[in-house]
Amino acid sequence: MALSASEISTSGAQRYAGRWTHAVTRRAFVTMSGEQVEELLTAHAVRLAQALSAEEFSADPAREVGRALVEANLTEPDTLGWSLRALGEHLVDDVVPGLRLPDQATRLTELQAALAEGFALALRDRTFAQQERISRSAWEARNEAEQALRDSEARFRAVFSGAAIGIGIGDLTGQIVDVNQAFADMLGYSRDELREINVSNLFHAEDSPGIWELYEDLIEGKRDRVRIEKRYFRKDGSELWTDLAVTLIRHDDGRPRFTVAMVQDITERYALQQRLRFQALHDPLTGLPNRTLFFERLEAVLQDRQHDRRVGVCFLDLDGFKAINDTLGHDVGDKLLIVVARRLAEAVSSAGHLVARMGGDEFVILVADVDQDGTTVEVAESALRAVAEPVYIGANQLAVSASVGIVDRFVDDGTATDLMKAADTTLYWAKAEGGRGRWARYDPERAAREATSTALAAALPSALARDEFVVEYQPIVSLGNGGMRAVEALIRWQHPTLGLLSPDQFIGLAEETGLIIRLGQWVLERSCAEAGRWHKEFPRARLMVSVNLSARQVSDPEIVDQVAGALRNSGLPPDLLQLELTESAVMATGGEPVRALRRLASTGVRLAIDDFGTGYSNLAYLRQLPIHTLKLAGPFVDGMRAHDPASVVAERIVDALVRLAHALGLSVTAESVETPEQVERLTALGCDSGQGRHFGTPAAPSAITALLRSAEMPGS
Amino acid sequence: MEQSRALPTEVDLSRPSAARVYDYFLGGAHNFEVDRQLAEQIAAMTPNLADTMRAGRAFLRRAVAELTRLGVDQYLDIGSGIPTVGNVHEVAQGINPQARIVYVDIDPVAVAHSRSILEDNPLTAVIQADVRDPAHILAEARDTGLLDFTKPVGVLLAGVVHFVPDSDEPDRLMATLRAAVPPGSYLVISHSTFEDQPQEMLDAQKLSARTATEITLRSKAQVSAFFGDFELLEPGIVHMPLWRPDSPGDVDDRPERFGAFGGVGRKPAAG
């Protein structure tokens, strides 16, 4: 018996599917909308109904429906339960109402079984497939991750083993875990040997003290990397200089785990640096430290401002080195410097003193701690002794000596530059003492004086230009009648800050600098002009002016013209001008001064020898000179004091000198006359005139004018 | 290529994976014993959870279908997991066969699985990346050549932003993603919430710490902030089943029981 499809109720199939949908989507509302699910299930309901009512029964469609449920992802266990129950209880009533087949119950059971079978098979297949896929994915993912890890490891390994730079890994105890070949090669060990070693064994005895602390900080996690230049000993004991960078590797939680060291061999670079540094700090000729290194050390000593610590410097310069260079050649000179350098080094370096060559033939010795190292003078003397030994260079035996300037002072007493300036000054003193092989010691007071003198000398020319000089006049009085016969012109410097300076404070400087010529001429002209005015106003007084001439003025070829010019300009009669010369100016060997004196005398002026008796006068020579007067030096008159037994001797000498002068036809003027007793004695001895405080101190021109005026007054 | 955020270098199969637990809840067999154990533990505490996950999947399906019908033909699915059923490419390509999808997940197993599933689908690609590194995701997505960032893109973050704790600045990463796409692009977010939830749901959240990441439950306002200036499509941010259900009958009487909000926003024209 067959049934046509039209007997299947479409509305019934929809009703059946509606309930079915409601049941399954409660749990598995996933890929499709409810509408889509219901549509699908309606089709399944129709298929099941068709299978049930087919003329020739087959359960296969139910099997396909079971599979289709799984494929639609309707896989929840209760989906199957509901589907089976509905099939048995409602399919006929809903979809094919009235169907009555003899084997209907069997057919339903068959369909139920087939649907369950199809569902189970599909679910099993799907589960297998998904399990296989997820397992394969997991395996692939793991494989990929491991491959990535292996690749990364391989890359690291390649870097590690192939790097030209040395790489070492150490644990926190300092134990070396691994090193690459480059590291092993640098240190001359095998990799296996190094893996047995603790890094502390590789520390160099002379590593700077901070290095350990840096390493400790690193392994304690206080810092993440350290980069230093460090020495190692190779296995063969030789020294390796490296640029070392150590990095800390931490655990994920930040705890220190390993250290990785990257090491680069910079031994050659270091050696080159050292060589360059040596070259930069040493004198190429003698190999001694140069001035740069000396100042570096000196600065270091001065920086170390320990209380009470003294530092010493010996500044040494060969005597007459230029002559050796000039006569024997620079080659011999250089060899001499090498020998001197070696001897100085041997003499004082052993005691720990630095010997440096400052340049030319100048050497310097640094006594870093005077109190500990003996006195600086001892060092200087041993240096002088070392230099003084004869030097043999080729066929030449050279007698060499040196001079040393010694400075010895507290470290906090000024800069290095001050110290070296002082040393230079002191060396100059040693040289100026005129000897060979001498030393001089720095004297701050002397230096201060010299500094003042230098400042004054420098100020002299402008002082002349600014008219800061004045001339004062001191009376020279006749011992016979007490009248003022002459005045001595005495120059003063009205210094803007130092006040009135006497000639002994600046004339020496003017002589050294040569300014004495212009200064002397100025005094000459000013004095003649003044005396000319006096002569014009007081012609009867016949007051003579006495002007000092320095030795340099005397030897100046212009002097005669200058004197003549001054007389001409002032209108002063020549015999009212007296020129005072020192014994040394007069007695100087050579013909020029004598010729100059004769030419001066020929102008009609009078010539006097000043400070007679203090120099070395050649009495025989004195006779031949056109001299008119001797001025007895102050000390002779000073010696003539009452109640002094020694004054008898002084008086006899003055007596002899007066007699000598008179015998030669010269008049005598006594200087430094201070007391009436002295006047009395000098008068008794026949001395012609006197000058000194007794007769009046140097005074302004107006005071002299006043004296002349009062002398002219009737009745005076 | 620089990876600013380290991806897992090891695949540890002794730990459960969020993607595989999710798959189990969706009725898949792409999971292992550890995953199923954890899933059962979670399910025992919150019987609703499997429903939540299905609801989340359904929300995603409806949202993608909606956007595809609106003309979006390229998607960036971040946190795609194991594409068991109802995948974005199935939904989108079911409507527009030319739709292109780039899947992103951090789980190397999920990524490997996705690749094997999608082997024969030239309009899809899978990249392994961390949601917390949007710059990396965007760069990798561009490198696939599948997405054209001058045209509207659907950016999908289904059940993933709640894996980003506040300390990882989810606002900033959302801003980066929003800025990367042109006007007319869409942002789809579903996100677990504590709002309207019973205590057991909140307790279950703590269990999730046993997978790779803990879940951070957020309020509707917080989820809303993730959309920035994007204009929300109707009905706004709602419990997931309420977002444009297929039919009113699909929504049961307690839509809040799924414990998650869903929403879709559209990037407005510039200016």
UniProtKB/TrEMBL annotation, chain A:
EAL domain boundaries = 453-712
The PAS domain, residue ranges: 152-222
Domain PAC, by residue range, is 226-278
Q: Which residues form the GGDEF domain?
A: 309-444
Question: What Pfam families would the database entry show?
Answer: EAL (PF00563), GGDEF (PF00990), PAS_9 (PF13426)
Highest rank taxon of the organism: Bacteria
Provide the protein name: Diguanylate cyclase/phosphodiesterase with PAS/PAC sensor(S)
TrEMBL record, chain B:
Start and end residues of each stretch annotated as Disordered: 248-271
Name the domain of life this protein comes from. Bacteria
Pfam families per the record?
Methyltransf_19
Please list the GO terms describing molecular function.
Answer: methyltransferase activity
* Keyword set, alphabetical order: Methyltransferase, Transferase
Name any Gene Ontology BP term. methylation
Which InterPro entries does this entry report, sorted A to Z?
SAM-dependent_MTases_sf (IPR029063), SAM_dep_MeTrfase_SAV2177_type (IPR006764)
- What's the protein name? S-adenosyl methyltransferase
Instruction: State the organism of origin.
Output: Asanoa ishikariensis
